[in-house]
Design brief:
21% helix, Jelly Rolls, 2 domains, alpha+beta, 192 residues, 434 Repressor (Amino-terminal Domain), single chain
Length: 192
């Protein structure tokens, strides 16, 4: 049987990191010592890697330097996954009262009021009526299937599958399905 020899794991050397952050914040040893509640001599020893601080001391130093503890220890902060998936059943939607229009909210909630995008599903005879948005707002409607009629202010235009309409929505506006089949599209709302 072969056993693998492992070397002991060294504690993270935080001294240089603390010193660099202290200097970056333009703090003296005295300043950081007071902020963190750690003696100046202990802080000096930690910065020179002559002492290994306790977790409590590292936590106090991280708070005093206003950084997350893992960042001070040299561990990467909890990263946001590079791909986030939203299940179809978890995608929120809005419906008109007559249930002939459905807007599936595809954009993240934190972008609402800035940049929004929706999947639009309009049954025959369905109308999505909207009040004016703030000045400078625009919508971009790309029809995927069927056709839709867009009205913005006094103008109306029929948009067929494969076409995109771009129009000002700082006035009353509407999207209606005057056809005999279901129409779908992608609707993007851009706020100033």
């Amino acid at each position: 049987m072969v056993t693998k020899k492992t070397s002991p794991v060294e504690p993270p050397a935080v001294g240089e990191r603390i010193k660099a952050l202290r200097q970056q914040h333009r703090l003296s040893l005295d300043d950081l010592s007071l902020r963190a509640g750690v003696s100046k001599s202990m802080l000096s020893q930690i910065e020179r890697n002559q002492a290994n601080p306790t977790v409590a001391v590292v936590w106090r130093l991280a708070n005093a330097l206003e950084i997350p503890l893992p960042e001070l220890l040299g561990s990467p902060a909890q990263a946001t996954p590079s791909i986030v998936t939203v299940a179809a059943h978890a995608t929120p939607s809005l419906r008109t009262q007559d249930e002939r229009c459905e807007l599936r909210i595809l954009g993240p909630v934190e972008m609402a009021g800035q940049f929004e995008w929706y999947e639009l599903i309009v049954q025959p005879g369905g109308v999505l009526d909207s009040h004016a948005h703030e000045p400078g707002s625009r919508e971009h409607l790309s029809v995927l299937t069927g056709s839709l009629e867009v009205t913005a202010g006094p103008q109306s235009q029929r948009i067929k599958a494969g076409e995109t309409a771009r129009y000002a929505v700082d006035q009353a506006h509407a999207i209606r399905n005057t056809g005999k089949g279901v129409a779908t599209g992608l609707l993007v709302v851009v706020h100033p």
